[in-house]
Amino acid sequence: MHPFSATRPPKLALGLGLAGLIPFITGALGLWVTPEAWRERVLEELLAYAALILAFMGAIHWGLAMRADEHSSKAPIQLALSVVPPLLGWVGLSLPINLALPVFFVAFATLYFADLWAVRHGLAPVWYPALRKPLSIVVILSLIVAWLATGRIG
């Protein structure tokens, strides 16, 4: 079976994806249980990690564009999709917290739909949404939990 036609993600991709959730979950929950003096630092680290992951996810779209047919009308779209996530992460890091967290969760939600677009156009493997959906849900929920906790920082 060709890897692009498999419907379930490879176990290694799933395991690594789940491991990548640890900083999101611990950062979001940490904002609720960490002593007040450390909460701002926890939030800074959570946002830095979110920005890094947006850059990583953008790089996936760059890679998909590189393997697309150079005459395809989809390759330029993939290239554009590759630079938007890291730019949003960079912008998010420069914003006040009450704006940064919504930018991050909107960026991750939008990125999920970009991933679906890539699958629909044959640029990403069929199994990709089965990996990305649960990961995206946990990331977005973690960012929302963090956003709710920001009233406790200060």
UniProtKB/TrEMBL annotation:
Keywords noted in UniProt: Membrane, Transmembrane, Transmembrane helix
Membrane-spanning parts: 12-34, 46-66, 87-114, 134-153
Pfam families to which the protein is assigned, alphabetical: DUF3429 (PF11911)
InterPro entries: DUF3429
Coiled-coil regions listed in the entry: none
Superkingdom of origin: Bacteria
PANTHER family registered for this protein in UniProt: TRANSMEMBRANE PROTEIN 69
Protein name listed in UniProt: DUF3429 domain-containing protein
Gene source species: Pseudomonas neustonica
